[in-house]
From TrEMBL:
Pfam families listed in its UniProt record: CLIP (PF12032), Trypsin (PF00089)
Boundaries of every Peptidase S1 domain copy: 126-367
EC number(s) stated in the UniProt entry for this protein: 3.4.21.-
Principal subcellular localization: secreted
N-terminal signal peptide: 1-18
Single Gene Ontology BP annotation: proteolysis
Name of this chain's protein: CLIP domain-containing serine protease
Comment block on domains: The clip domain consists of 35-55 residues which are 'knitted' together usually by 3 conserved disulfide bonds forming a clip-like compact structure.
CDD domains the record matches: Tryp_SPc (cd00190)
Gene Ontology CC terms: extracellular region
Length: 367
């Protein structure tokens, strides 16, 4: 009740009004109906899961469409997530075959909850382009490239995620024809500070393998697996879970609000952030995304990707975030588990109005 009261308070200055039951569009460009928030489970769940934070207020302001008496009305999405064909990531890494993603109990076993996707924070935060907390995403990785100007200081150009204690998942374009990639930093928070409380480790790489059908022009199948020289022994680092089980395995996530995190540029062609940043963005329908990129002849928007971001801009992954995770969180038995559903692939500039970001989907199966 307090959370709904907070929501009402957040909108007392808004004069927007619409008829109860009128049609509308959500931030994900889904068709919706303007109804009292009391009857919209999607946003009630966000209030329940994430609490009455300023970022929740910012998110709900975007879906506010009027009043019914003293109750705020929201644009409640009417389209539920549709199934997609289950996952199959076809990497040619010998130790991590495509069956790892389809049948994780065979060959090289992927961790399952509670051995993956947990953090020391113990709760969700809804955030929009703000610094991450220490230990919030203990699987995230910074990839280091040789720096000819300063050989002792790697260039941190891409991200990734630990999915086992030996394997990193990242974008294909982060490793394709990149002999200058030579190390990874795990357990990090601020790349250039030793006073952030983190206990990072620098790990060496044994081999990198790009998806065998990766296309560097169209960025299709933009995914790769990096194998470490040996399993890491950093107790602060845990793998993220992957969507290998139902219902996540057959979910298109449209209308959901996943997290993205990375050390990328704060704005297009701007400086990178030294502190890990995170934001929450809506997943949009591929049809809407395809229309946004219709004039880009080399792009392919199909079931191998998912798109996320605000069409009015403002929040997005950016340069340097490539390869990093797009994540959802699930609450079960009072325990929060994070699942990586996408890998940062590409976009037009950063948070450009009218252009969501494009992510390689991790629960896609070819055929």
């Amino acid at each position: 009740m307090f959370k709904i009261a907070f929501f009402v308070f957040a909108f007392v200055l808004l004069g927007v009004n619409a008829q109860d039951g009128s049609t509308c569009r959500t931030p994900s460009q889904l068709e919706g109906v303007c109804i009292s928030i009391k009857f919209c489970n999607e946003y009630l769940e966000i209030l329940s899961k994430y609490g009455a934070s300023p970022s929740v207020s910012d998110l709900l302001r975007q879906v506010h469409c009027g009043w019914k008496g003293n109750d705020p009305m929201v644009c409640c999405p009417q389209l539920r997530s549709k199934p997609v064909t289950p996952a199959k990531v076809e990497t040619t890494t010998s130790a991590l075959t495509e069956r790892t993603f389809i049948q994780p109990n065979q060959y090289y076993s992927l961790p399952r909850p509670p051995l993956c996707g947990y953090n020391i924070i113990g709760k969700n935060r809804v955030v929009n382009g703000v610094p991450a907390l220490l230990g919030e995403f203990p699987w995230i990785v910074a990839l280091g490239y040789r720096n000819s100007k300063n050989p002792n200081q790697p260039k941190w150009l891409c991200g990734g995620s630990m999915i086992t204690d030996t394997h990193i998942i990242t974008a294909g374009h982060c490793v394709h024809n990149r002999p200058d990639l030579y190390l990874a930093r795990i357990g990090e928070l601020d790349l250039y500070s030793d006073d952030d409380g983190a206990q990072p480790s620098t790990v060496t790489l044994l081999k990198v393998k790009v998806h065998e059908h990766y296309n560097p022009t169209s960025y299709t199948n933009d995914i790769a697996i990096i194998t470490l020289a040996q399993p890491h022994n950093n107790p602060t680092v845990h793998p993220v879970c992957l969507p290998v089980d139902e219902p996540l395995r057959s979910n298109d996530f449209v209308g959901g609000f996943p997290f993205v995190a990375g050390w990328g540029a704060i704005y297009f062609n701007g400086p990178s952030s030294s502190n890990l940043q995170t934001a929450i963005i809506p997943v949009v329908k591929n049809e809407e995304c395809s229309r946004a990129f219709i004039n880009f002849r080399t792009t392919t928007i199909d079931q191998r990707v998912l798109c996320a971001g605000y069409f009015d801009g403002g929040k997005d992954a950016c340069q340097g975030d490539s390869g990093g995770p797009l994540m959802i969180s699930k609450l079960k038995n009072k325990t929060i588990t994070f699942y990586q559903i996408g890998v940062v692939s590409y976009g037009f500039r950063c948070a450009e109005q009218g252009f969501p970001g494009v992510y390689t989907r991790l629960n896609y199966k070819n055929g």
